[in-house]
Amino acid sequence: MIRPGEASRFLSEFIKLNTTNPPGNEEVAAHYLEALLDKEGIKTDIYAPAPKRANILAKIKGKKRGKPIILLGHVDVVPADAEGWAEDPFSGAIREGYLYGRGAIDMKSQVICLLMAFIELKRQGITPERDMIFLATADEETGGELGVEYMVKKLPWLRGASFVLSEGGCIVEEDGFQHAQVSVAEKKIAQFMIRAHGSGGHASMPHSNNANDKVVRAAHRLIDFRMPFRPTPVVTRYLTALLKGNMIKGHAFSTLKEALRNERFRTFVENHPVYNAILRNTIALTILKAGEKVNVIPTESTAQFDARILPEENAERFLKAVAKVAGKDVEVVSSGPYDSIPSSYRTDYFRMISQAVRKVKGNAFPVLPFLTTGATDLRFFRRFGIAAYGFFPITLSKEELFRMHGLNERISLQNLEEGLYATQRLVELLASYPGA
Ligand SMILES: [Zn+2]
Prior knowledge:
Layout: H1 6-16, H2 27-39, E1 44-50, E2 53-60, E3 69-74, E4 94-95, E5 98-100, H3 108-123, E6 132-137, H4 148-154, E7 163-166, E8 171-174, E9 177-186, E10 188-189, E11 192-197, E12 201-202, H5 211-224, H6 233-243, E13 247-248, E14 251-252, H7 256-259, H8 263-270, H9 273-279, E15 282-290, E16 296-297, E17 300-309, H10 315-326, E18 331-334, H11 348-361, E19 367-372, H12 379-382, E20 387-390, E21 395-397, H13 398-402, E22 410-412, H14 413-431
Helix pairs in contact: 1-3, 3-14, 11-14
Zinc ion binds next to loops.
């Protein structure tokens, strides 16, 4: 049995271990988890891809040799500057029912809940049908090269997993309405730069071969370009479940396809950052670099864009379209996009998640597949055709969600308790599942 207060104590101790990435320093976190597993008599292996960096793997052997199930979490966090925080971001302080700290949501809380649900199998003497793997990794926040990417190279058998559970979705509360977002896909990163060269010279004698002018004009064309809406199956399922029957800006929503033909609905979508991002490729101008002296025309100018494209989109085709819109005066340089393919949501695993959520939230609670706009480590598993879902059953308002990677990241103790309870139910279901 999980003892009262165990989860909050572990999480508080875990947050105190500063695993800000860069530099990462995940070794301390791996050793902490190792000690907890060791106490329960569960053997662990630590994989260190570089000094002070570490991944940890533990296994509970199943009854038969089937494809394993992986409970996955990253232990690194994004930087946090104590200024502006109500509590020190690495104190793990508990105040008025909230546990504060970097990683309280993303994702040390989930790592602790997955770990405890895993440990609980051992404590209860449950032998899972198939091998259950607990895998806590480094380096997610800067691309995963030393974390999951390293691990699937080091241990190729991980590529044969049947299911991976990690971060990316939760229960969202919006306008008093709650629903569960289970991330089954994520957008692909396709960052690019536009670059122009020109002849430079003294700014007192302007000419038409100015690198900055070329980049600014091309950037303008890209910003003004309206990417077409492309409702993918996951997003169609998601938005239809949320919006069907609602009046939106005077439009009665029946199907997404029809709604997208309505101009007022399209404007509504364009002003909703999440709906907009899940329905189309997006670009955001993030870095402008050129010129050093106000009286000198630079010879080179660049603008960098963060682009996130739909999982079904072909990256080369997208970049070709970008180059066409940007025009002949600039070149488009891309650092190579990450591949990412969606997982199907018509699986027993999705049904098990629904079942676990409904144990907490009631039988009619909407549990919907979702497309994450950011990138997670799950992409390294989805590329092998594995059902890989991002979901942690805690309930967050928009305001609480924005604290992730921001100021005063925190989790309520009640949320942590519910998250742990539903995670445990889910892990039990997974353990008793003979398998696909
Ligand atoms: Zn994360």
